[in-house]
Write a structure and sequence with these properties.
Layout: H1 10-43, H2 48-77, H3 84-88, H4 91-118, H5 126-154, H6 164-179, H7 210-219, E1 239-240, E2 245-246, E3 250-253, E4 259-261, E5 266-274, E6 278-285, E7 290-300, E8 309-310, E9 315-319, E10 331-338, E11 349-351, H8 353-362
Antiparallel strand pairs: 1-2, 3-10, 4-9, 5-6, 5-8, 6-7, 7-9, 7-10, 10-11
Helix pairs in contact: 1-2, 1-5, 4-5, 7-8
The structure holds zinc ion (ZN).
């Protein structure tokens, strides 16, 4: 499982996605050309160019396979797109892998046979030519299906378990984004929290006292610039994950790349990556009573590490849609929890951030420079 501390540059991500897609196109063309040339050779066995054309198609098919595998592994293991676990939870992704293995298994015999033809160790005979032709056409169909499975994976369909709700939630988020052109006041019923570390889990020992709330109100400031918390609607109690759990956080819509500022002074506890939360920051406030969590980041602020000291207002990252947020509705998922021990950063009793932010705004919370 990868926990990249810095996001891969967008140019690399585009390049890898392009190479991966291009490989499918090149491979399809190559294996199709191989099949056609072999069929020509069957019709006219005296034509030596037909076999040569088949070998050229076969070479492109091989180049495409290497390109596809290399770019795919880089994206999967490098965590340049969704996190590795996101793919592992996707049925569509597993279907894609299974299809790839079938294509590969089907290729073993044609590959060794064609190598023998290339090295003149064997003469092409009609029976083998016919078989490889049929295998090639089957592989064409399988590659086309892989392309379909890839599109399905990227769109987030075919996720297992609670993830079915992700689909519905995403559509909800899409329509919110489309309907509401005023980004900042919009609140998304977006991310279903299918697995967790999203919102901290109560350990059972934390209690939120009025004292805690007063302290937090003195400490906190809105993590995004130019947003008046009184214009936001709380989505803390909304049911997510197909109604299986409460959201227990505040989603704040903002354009991708909007700087996210540390809401309090304190320190980074953990830079974490999860299938649902995407790139996340867990931080402690200066009193070490609270864990603040920021999710779906596009990228971290340069140089941010697991132990960075934070000033209130310091930029920690940028708004994005990593994890299960809709790409069309980038937003900050902001959660606060009363913690019995901030070293256990994934534990705590969730506190609705909105009333605290509204209280802080009423007090005229100054943002630290
Ligand atoms: Zn959220």
């Amino acid at each position: 499982m990868s926990h990249p501390l810095t996001a891969t540059p967008i140019t690399t991500r585009i390049l890898l996605a392009w190479l991966h897609l291009l490989a499918l196109a090149v491979g399809l063309a190559g294996v199709w050309a191989r099949a056609r040339a072999l069929s020509d050779s069957l019709r006219n066995p005296e034509d030596p160019r037909a076999i040569r054309r088949a070998l050229v198609g076969d070479a492109w098919w091989g180049v495409a396979a290497i390109m596809w595998l290399a770019s795919g592994l880089w994206r999967l293991i490098g965590g340049t797109e969704k996190s590795t676990s996101y793919y592992m939870e996707s049925n569509a992704f597993l279907v894609k892998m299974a299809l790839f293995l079938i294509v590969f298994a089907l290729e073993i015999w044609p590959m060794t046979t064609l190598i023998r033809w290339r090295r003149k160790r064997a003469e092409p005979d009609a029976r083998d030519v016919g078989r490889i032709e049929i295998i090639s056409y089957v592989q064409c169909a399988l590659v086309a299906t892989i392309a379909l499975a890839a599109v399905v994976t990227a769109r987030g369909y075919g996720m297992r378990a609670g993830a079915a709700a992700t689909l519905a939630a995403r559509h909800a988020a899409d329509s919110v984004a489309a309907a509401d052109s005023v980004y900042r006041a919009a609140v998304v019923p977006a991310d279903s929290l299918a697995d967790m570390p999203e919102s901290p889990e109560p350990s059972g020992t934390e209690v939120v006292t009025p004292d805690d709330v007063a302290l937090l109100t003195r400490e906190i400031a809105m993590p995004l610039d130019g947003i008046d918390p009184t214009t936001l609607r709380s989505n803390f109690d909304e049911r997510r994950g197909g109604g299986t759990r409460q959201h227990q956080a505040l989603d704040i819509m903002a354009p991708r790349g909007t700087p996210i500022r540390s809401a309090t002074a304190g320190r980074v506890l953990k830079l974490f990556t999860s299938a649902n939360g995407g790139l996340m920051v867990y931080a402690a406030d200066s009193s070490e009573r609270f864990v603040l969590m920021y999710a779906h980041l596009d990228r971290y602020a340069p140089g941010l590490t697991d132990s960075t000291r934070l000033a209130r207002g310091q930029i920690i990252g940028y708004v994005g849609s990593t994890g299960n947020a809709s790409p069309n509705a980038p937003h900050l998922h902001f959660a606060i929890a009363r913690s019995a021990d901030v070293k256990r950063w994934s534990r705590g009793k969730a506190i609705d951030p909105l009333p605290v932010l509204v209280g802080a705004a009423g007090r005229g919370a100054a943002r630290a420079p």
